[in-house]
Amino acid sequence: MNHDEITELAELGQQLRVDSVRATAAAGSGHATSSMSAADLTAVLFARHLRYDFENPESPSNDRFILSKGHASPVLYAAYKAAGAITDDELMTFRTYGSRLDGHPTPRIPWVDVATGSLGQGLPVGVGMALTAKRLDRTDCRVWVMCGDSELAEGSIWEAAEQAGYDHLDNLTAIVDVNRLGQRGPTRHGHDLDAYARRFHAFGWHTIEVDGHDVGAIDAAYQEAASTAGEPTVILARTLKGKGVAATEDREGLHGKPLKDSEGAIRELGGVRNIRIQVQRPTGAEALARHEGRLELPRYDKGGDEVATRNAFGEALTALGSARGDVVTLDGEVGDSTRAEFFSKEHPDRYFEFFIAEQQLVAAAVGMAARGWTPYASTFAAFLTRAHDFIRMAAISDVAINLVGSHAGVEIGEDGPSQMGVEDLSMFRAIHKSTVLYPCDANQTARLTAEMAGLPGVSYLRTSRSGMPVIYGPDEEFHVGGSKVLRSGDADRVTVIGAGQTVHEALAAADVLAGEGVDVRVIDLYSVKPVDRRTLREAASATGCLLTVEDHHEEGGIGDAVLDAFHDGRPTPRLVRLAVRMMPGSGKPEELLRAAGIDAESIAAAVRLLVEEAVVR
Amino acid sequence: MNHDEITELAELGQQLRVDSVRATAAAGSGHATSSMSAADLTAVLFARHLRYDFENPESPSNDRFILSKGHASPVLYAAYKAAGAITDDELMTFRTYGSRLDGHPTPRIPWVDVATGSLGQGLPVGVGMALTAKRLDRTDCRVWVMCGDSELAEGSIWEAAEQAGYDHLDNLTAIVDVNRLGQRGPTRHGHDLDAYARRFHAFGWHTIEVDGHDVGAIDAAYQEAASTAGEPTVILARTLKGKGVAATEDREGLHGKPLKDSEGAIRELGGVRNIRIQVQRPTGAEALARHEGRLELPRYDKGGDEVATRNAFGEALTALGSARGDVVTLDGEVGDSTRAEFFSKEHPDRYFEFFIAEQQLVAAAVGMAARGWTPYASTFAAFLTRAHDFIRMAAISDVAINLVGSHAGVEIGEDGPSQMGVEDLSMFRAIHKSTVLYPCDANQTARLTAEMAGLPGVSYLRTSRSGMPVIYGPDEEFHVGGSKVLRSGDADRVTVIGAGQTVHEALAAADVLAGEGVDVRVIDLYSVKPVDRRTLREAASATGCLLTVEDHHEEGGIGDAVLDAFHDGRPTPRLVRLAVRMMPGSGKPEELLRAAGIDAESIAAAVRLLVEEAVVR
């Protein structure tokens, strides 16, 4: 760059600072000083390196930019203004009700792919996008992720560092705005860039240390990153929080606040500018077309051999992958248990291994979904809790991801409580706009696995370890929001509602009770969210009393899902819940189902008690 | 060591292998090959380095041993047998119903401090114990953590590596059983010990590479670890999965299974032995005494200035710390927001900073609680989801930890959805034996903060960002499992139930409605779990209809908690729920409460509708 270009870039940096100060001052809140440290890094990226068509944000040829330090949103929005994507008037709506310029970026803005603001998530999501570009879209898209130094304390950053180094993601660049100050004071390593470089280098990254306020040096660093082959690059930029204003520069205690004297600060920064930049458009080819074909799901004989729902999931997913080229599968080093590995045999090019790193597993699914792919990520149901914060953020990102948790409930037996998912239904039900499915049979599992591919938002499928009877034919249909009434008659005295294993327990109990002259209705509530309100209300009005049975803790699962049908002030049925209330140990599945009081015998006993005590007719 | 000693140790290693093969064969399940790789490492540790009094496991002078690779439980139980702590008969109960020898270790065994089995947790918990020994108990206890190589992919390992390096925890030793094979195949780095050494070294650790089947070399490594000052040590041990049996040694596809020919394997390993070892007892001094004094909680004027509950928490916690020397505070780099930092001013020696690493934050609390301290760990409510798997495991560990989440709900305003805890009540309610508290006033917060210190299990306190009216006097008492009826009369037509901010909204709505001639009962449900069943049942029977209002998603929160009072088959009241059903953006708190339909006006409107439609009397 020549002297003029350098001056212009420095001016652009100042403009981003001024606009960050103005936006936060107008809002009366927001992270001015965190934006000021990142201004030069952002200016050089947008003006000279990012290849992005603001009119066609979905193009797979576009580079992607993720502001992992999402609290520095003012500098991002200021860059959008400089790029002509938003007006100055809109910039001044920052953080106001109804504005799309939220306190932390969300995809309500068309150029934001994923929500950030929970720190440590941008880099692992970026790994997912870099993998997408390299292995799926096969474009020369670059992924740029701007991190804060504080967030390098998050383990998820190192899951991403390991994955990116191992996969040689040279299309991924992490830019770390090392401004030395976290929210409440200095970070662990302050301005010791070497400390961070040693860590990234050990994980197989190319590292560059740079003065984050020297636009020429930043430009050279971006160029070096873009031309580095075989390794991801991290640019460690020494910056000053609140840079450019004496009252704020490198000072503690100013995190997350507008400047006290914003007018004076704007003057000190050289006043309001109106530099416009032309972000360069990508020139690369569009992504490869994806094949579409006829879906031929596996078919299981009704009444035939028992089949574990996890097996049916693996087989259905493989079939789905044959029919739809957009379906990708992500494993957390348990593909042999979840049966996701069936997919890898047929579609190795769309199978991704993340080893035991559930945060990276889910983050990669988010990144791939944000790029238009249909990911299925699976591990044990219990271990999806490891990624809860990523799942929560995925809902804010409004991406369509499919998560599958195997080894649900005490039914897994000998492995003991650490491996038993008994909180998963609760976790997933509380996610905004989520879908929660829990099949009890192989044909049902196959259908629901395929159904998930078309759903918006976060979808969850819960599978089980042991074989279960096949009670539905292969042509039976199952819809999200539906249920199946498996036993029903005019003399039903209670409705027993289960899902997964407890459907079979309920059927066995119904048979025993029928022999005793007590009729019960049995509902298979395979769609836990949304729940089949009509069927539940009919059952309530017909039998008066509902008995829910679930291989899950009593809070937030099937019992609560059933009540979802009755919370609008209409008459509520009597409800009795059977659920896992103890801390299970090891044992045979049937011993543990019994101990938890959710087996056929426990159901029958509960119904008998209700009949005897005349709680039911 | 002389030749005889070496031979004896090698023999002990073989005994641990044989007993692992025997236990898994008897159980018909379990991780034989993962135990066989770790046998020599375990043998040398127990025979020559661990200082532990099996008859006095709580002694702070004891070393601690955490089997982070919990699936290798057979080798741990075999070591217990060799140490005389359990009999061979008990060893053979492995994984059977009712045995304390679960598939993965839990504290049902007195010498197991914390449950393991969710990988990547042992090391961060060990960091908490090492900090306890160094800064709280001030004993020369060593903490030994045995990890698998696969679990080094978990980000939580690197949160721990960073914390331990930064805190110079030279009383912590990680032993990594690098057997090259994960569950479904080879690990990322196979037997490349250097790859791991580079990573740990970059994080400030002393590293030792060793042949994990050479007992002499292992012994030297443990000695070097114990004598290394100023840095934690990691021993990277090259081992073979299934070591000692040709059919299993270094073979894929044998994870988590008993050996096919266990009799032959036992012969090949030299048959059953009965070596007894005497684990050396600790000689160090006992821990320092902890002071106990009179608790003087802060007092707030009823009807005086508004006070944020997070402020009251910080002040109460500080007072509690003055009264009780066992109370410690853990921060995740947001102490200025959660107000935990108030504690640091008065009690810096019992204040621990974990930066932005929520898994390590909670894991350290678990480690400290397991050592008899009373930890309060706090961050934003939203970010506690990051540690969900650790909270789940804490319940299995049966430790008493106090977690505090600030910035709950849409009420935080401008920062936007990434910072809003709207799933936290659901997450915590579904934790086994948890307590969930949600105060609406400063005096109530102070009391509940103090109450938590005496509770078993996982306790959660939800605090809010903005100031709230002080509606209770400083002498009002609040009990876990209680509630407060704030408005009540014979003509009540609906009961409005809130907690936190929505209590104030409910009171305002009640005033408006009273002016319109509609009386409503108002309940402050500050104890979300356990819930005050009696009061709720009385209200239901008095008013027929319950209206819950919560700054939380509709699933798993206060609405569901209220129904917990009615799920034993008794008549269920009509229920209407107001909750956060949309995806919030930024805005002023009052704008967002309105948009979510949980403010006073929304409550009043809902009650009017119920009255008009004659749903209520």
UniProtKB/TrEMBL annotation, chains A, B:
This protein's record includes keyword Calcium: yes
Cofactor(s) the record lists: Mg(2+); thiamine diphosphate; Mn(2+); Ca(2+)
Membrane-traversing stretches: none
Domain Transketolase-like pyrimidine-binding: 307-470
Gene Ontology MF terms in the entry: magnesium ion binding; thiamine pyrophosphate binding; transketolase activity
InterPro entries associated with the record: THDP-binding, Transketo_C/PFOR_II, Transketolase-like, Transketolase-like_Pyr-bd, Transketolase_BS, Transketolase_C, Transketolase_N
Keywords from the named record: Calcium, Magnesium, Metal-binding, Thiamine pyrophosphate, Transferase
Complexes and interactors: Homodimer.
Family: Belongs to the transketolase family.
Protein's name in the database: Transketolase
Provenance organism: Streptomyces tsukubensis
